[in-house]
Structure formats: C-alpha cells, structure tokens
Fold:
Amino acid sequence: MTPRHKRIGFVIIGLLAISVAAVLVVTAMQSYTSYFYNSTQIVNNEAPVGKLIRIGGMVKENSIRREPGELEMTFIVTDMSNEVTVRYSGIVPDLFKEGGGAVARGELNQAGEFIAEEIMAKHDESYMPPEVAELMQHNQADQQ
Structure:
C-alpha cells in the first residue's frame, strides 16, 4: 500500500468517526429537548403523549390538592382559556402558589393529565415565562 492510499484511508476513517460522533450528539440532544405547550394546545391534542414537554401558565386558585404529610399533589394550570390537571410528587419551590405563574416539565399521559417531574415557579412578582405572558395577553384580549 502506498503512502497516498494510507492517507486516504486515515481520512476516510476520520470522517466516519466524526460522523458517528455527530449522530450520537444529535441523538442525545433530542432526548433532553422539551418543547413548551400551553393548556389550550394540550386540550386541543397538539402536544405529544408520552414525550418530555413543558407546560406553563397560572396555577388556578383553590386547585392545589395535597394530603397532609404526603409529597404527592395535584393542581390545575390554566392559560385563562383552558385548564390541565398536573400531578407531581416532590417538594415544590417556595414561590409556588395558587394564582402564581409556574412551568412544569414532564409527560402527558393518555388520560390528558400532565405527570410532572419538575416544577419551576416565577422568581419575582413581575416575572412570567414569555410564552405564557404572550398567550395570557392574547386570551384576555379575546375575552374583552
């Protein structure tokens, strides 16, 4: 084998290794990507079932249900147009409250309930996720 053939072989092997690495990185990134949906999109069956997604909106007043001494809870997230029940087991952030903004990450089940694995709450009185703020402004304009 000539030196030229050896170099071509190394280049081809190098390109194959880079291609395999790129495919592995893209595959790994897709499994950790979670898309944002609002309550209306979930009610309209626009969100995938069994895939990692985020849902955001306001926690409906008087919707938080938790047995004393238990970590499991349910609450309702609303975009002022539609509502989705969220189930969560764990400790919620200190700023999580009824009437406050929240984003949950998890999966939608066949029954239309959202099973959350993480809850994120707004960090001050004026903050709201941009997607939620835009949707709520749109829904309030539609109601008037």
Observations:
- The chain has a mean pLDDT of 84.
